[in-house]
Amino acid sequence: MRRLMALLGMLAGVSALALGQQSPFLPEETYNKLTNEISGDIAYDNLRSLVMYHAPSGESQGFVDEAQWVEARAKSYGLEDVKFISLPAWITSRHAVDQSWTLEGGELWLLEPRVVKLGDVRETPTSVADNSPTADVTADLVDVGEGTEESDYAGKDVSGKIVLAFGPPDKVKELACWTRGAVGIVSYHSTRTNPWTDHPDQIAWSHLNASKEGEKPVPPAFVISPRTGLELSREMGGRGPTHLFSDESGKGSSPPRFRVHLTVQSTVTRPGRQGLVEGFIRGSTYHDQAIVLTAHMQEEKTSANDDRSGCANLLEIARALEAQIRDGRLPRPKRDLRFWWTNKIGAEYEYFSEHPEERQRILADINEDMVGARQSLGGRVQHVSRTPYSRWSFLNDVVESIVTSLVEGNNGYIASWQNHNAAPYSRPIFAHLGSREPYHAEMVHYFDSTDHLVFNEGGIGIPGVTFTNWPDEYIHSSDDDLWQIDRTQLQRNAVAVAASALYLANLTEAEAPTLMAVMAGEARERLSHDLAVGLSRLAQTASTTGRSPAQAGAEKAAAFEDAMNLLGQAELREVAGFESLRRFIGPNMQTLLESLTQDLKLTELNHRKRIEEWYRALGGARSTASLSDKERALAAQVPKNAGALGEYLRRREQIEGPKGLHPLMKFEALNYADGRRSILDIYHAVRAESLSAGEWYYGTVKLEDVEALFKAAEQEKAVEITSK
Q1: Distance CA 390, CA 585 (A)
Q2: Strand partners, 115
Q3: 703: Cβ–Cβ under 8 A, 6 or more apart, which residues?
Q4: For 56, which DSSP code?
Q5: For 355-362, what is the mean pLDDT?
Q6: Are 691 and 566 in contact (CB under 8 A)?
Q7: Would you give the DSSP letter of residue 307?
Q8: Beta strands in 254-343 (DSSP E)
């Protein structure tokens, strides 16, 4: 009873904070200090410098120059032990090309039928595809359409000529240059959804794979906008401009000769090198439980949102926290804050491969990648990922609580206005020169594609989340520039990340009861969500129209098993979240933690009864399910990671696996290979995760696909499978 009353008291305190539109993890005093010091305008000023570096890879000279600038800036802000950590390039295959490529210049001129400069690296550095060699070529231009099918070259002689194409440059390279002798490519390829109508003037950041040993050399590829490419294609086909007063009299006449002059200046050095800039705010007490904040410098020039916005925000968080610690406004955090400006993903993989002991010295990662978008352009939303279910942690509830409080304070609500709160927003965060737009941020299920994924790897085992806006039709193009950055969104995201990091850095047993109370409430909500998913799947089997009784019964039984599995996996997930908190609490709180985990198990049992009631009410036969021969065999096979960490991570990259399994479910399945779970256990875990998030999100997980994945992993020597 005393434990129950203590928990109720904690929940009452949390509820009181919620009434004040505050997160219990962001006290009013800390909120005021952070919002008054962190500046989106200062972050934007640093962004002005960062976008001047063309660093398409972490091995380029532009990356090195940018890293030196960040290192100097971090030192000027007072971070300790700031240094550039040089690392080998992250190479996962013996066939990969280990080199550094740096772009120095390039132009494209149309010489005939008139003289026009079509592009210049000094104007748009994305005008030259990565890994294009130094070249100085004058040749006829031949339009090959998409350039990715044999039929695109029918009746066309491209030998010794330059091709105009809108297909992926690597495929055009193979068919036009390697197969038919073309000497260069003018590309108007784009990855946009509808580039010719929505983004006709973007110049895409394009890439050619470097040639492996025995392959023909890479040709030079110059990139122009879809509009310019389409206009050239029309004119080369003898079709003039189209408008109200177009002259059609010349249509069908023989088109003139088109001739271009393409130049590229680039350098290649081998082997490739990469690295990261590291700096610290040293904690007062613990130096083996660091909070790492990450962002990556490696991007094309002008790439303001992806991810120079994250890099600028890391600098601003460092400046604001260090300034307040120095003058006494903020106490020094108890744990180290480590700031990493990286080569995206590759630097972290190589770092942990070389320093596997560092895994035990890091508590969590918070990543910022694309945090400055003016959200009204393209309908962008600031997505904040949760950790994958395999890495479930109290980190999720801390970040979600803080982000939710900022969202509610920076959106307008009719009832809030009627309650005489400030308008348009009740707790606004505005940069002086930023917009007054609302803060559209949303917690979402795990996704990868940026630096936090490395921390969440099963072999590394550190929970990590990311702030990443999406969708984004400006990314990786000449349009990702300062004009579409909002200082206000920079500031809001910086406050959210700084607040989360500070809470984690100061977490002690004194803060644990409040955190446990929030986690208990959120865990119940998530369990109820998974119950609802299971019941919904059962309800969908109620109709037998168009199905035989046997088929309907089998579908009902399968839905019942899914619903039960969802609950079982949900309980395991939430208990794992509470277990992630255990290291921070003393004996008194241990008893309460045990009570909460037991309560979760009771809740799960109660939900199971509801599912059984539904199943019987819908005509389901009493379940006598037994394992199939296949399931029994997989229940006896237990995979675990093979080799040293670096060996495992490199081999893991070579696993192809079944194409029907979503890449993130492949990631999760391998994360669960811990030497304890069987392949059947792992299947149950990832199937439940896909159903909990929604099969529209993670796809459908099938037992045969999980089995095939581990066969492929064993063949690559990434895992060892033992029998039990």
Answers
A1: 23
A2: none
A3: 630, 631, 634, 680, 683
A4: S
A5: 97
A6: yes
A7: I
A8: 259-269, 273-281, 286-296, 335-342
Amino acid at 138: T
Which tops the pLDDT comparison, 290 or 248?
290
**Full-model pTM:** 0.94
CA-based nearest residue to 662, from 632, 691, 641? 691
pLDDT at 549: 84
Cα dihedral 509, 515, 516, 521 in deg (nearest 10):
170
- Percentage of the chain modeled with pLDDT above 70: 95
d(CA 467, CA 444): 10
Rounded to 10 deg, the angle between the 2-19 and 512-539 helix axes is 90
Distance CA 448, CA 455 (A): 11
Whole-number pLDDT of residue 244: 65
The pLDDT mean for the chain works out to: 93
Q: Is the pLDDT of residue 676 over 80?
A: yes
Amino acid at 440: H
- Cα 362 from Cα 415, distance rounded (Å): 43
Phi, psi of 62 (to 5 degrees): -60, -35
- Whether 456 contacts 387, CB under 8 Å: yes
In angstroms, what CA-CA distances link 635 with 559, 630, 638? Answer: 21, 9, 8
In terms of Cα–Cα distance, which of 147, 138, 143, 146 is closest to 110? Answer: 138
Q: State how far the Cα of 518 lies from the Cα of 405, in Å rounded to an integer.
A: 14
Segment 427-466, tens digit of pLDDT: 999 999 999 999 999 999 999 999 999 999 999 999 999 9
Q: For residues 568 and 517, give the distance between their C-alpha atoms in angstroms, rounded to a whole number.
A: 22
CA dist 556 and 445 (Å) reads 28
Alpha-carbon gap, residue 504 to 354, rounded angstroms: 26
* Residue 546 pLDDT grade (very low, low, confident, very high; cuts 50, 70, 90): confident
- The vertex-422 CA angle with 420 and 423, nearest 5°, equals 105
pLDDT band for 367, please (50, 70, 90 cuts): very high
Tokens of 157: 């002689």
Strand 464-470 relative to strand 362-368, pairing:
parallel
Q: What DSSP line would sit under 58-104, residue for residue?
A: TTSHHHHHHHHHHHHHHHHTT-EEEEEEEEE----STTS---EEEEE
The residue assigned the tokens 């009299």 is 249
Q: Is 107 helix (H, G, I), strand (E, B) or coil?
A: strand
Give the gyration radius of the chain's Cα atoms: 28
The CB-side HSE value for 82 (13 A sphere, CA atoms) comes to 19
Q: Over the stretch 630-675, which tens digit does the pLDDT of each residue have?
A: 999 999 999 999 999 999 999 999 998 899 999 999 999 999 999 9
Phi, psi for 281 (deg, rounded to 5): -105, 110
Q: What is the pLDDT of residues 142-196, one digit of tens each?
A: 999 999 999 999 999 999 999 999 999 999 999 999 999 999 999 999 988 888 8
Instruction: State residue 253's pLDDT score.
Output: 64
User: What is the per-residue DSSP string for 230-252?
Assistant: HHHHHHHTT----STT---TTTT
Q: Is the peptide bond before 113 cis (omega within 30 degrees of 0)?
A: yes
pLDDT per position as a tens digit, 223-271: 999 999 999 999 999 887 776 666 655 555 678 899 999 999 999 999 9
Report residue 496 as tokens: 């959210």
Q: Where are the beta strands (DSSP E) in 347-387?
A: 362-368, 381-385
* Distance (Å, whole) CA 333 – CA 182: 61
> Is the pLDDT at 17 greater than 60, yes or no?
no
In terms of Cβ atoms closer than 10 Å to its own Cβ (0-12, 13-18, 19+), residue 212 is: exposed
Query: CA–CA separation, 441 vs 383, rounded Å?
Result: 6
Please determine, for residue 535, whether its predicted confidence score (pLDDT) is greater than 90: yes
Describe the strand order of the beta sheet including 286-296 as a list of residue ranges.
80-88, 273-281, 335-342, 286-296, 362-368, 464-470, 381-385, 441-444
Distances (CA, A) of 706 to 133, 243, 300, 400, 643: 42, 56, 37, 31, 21
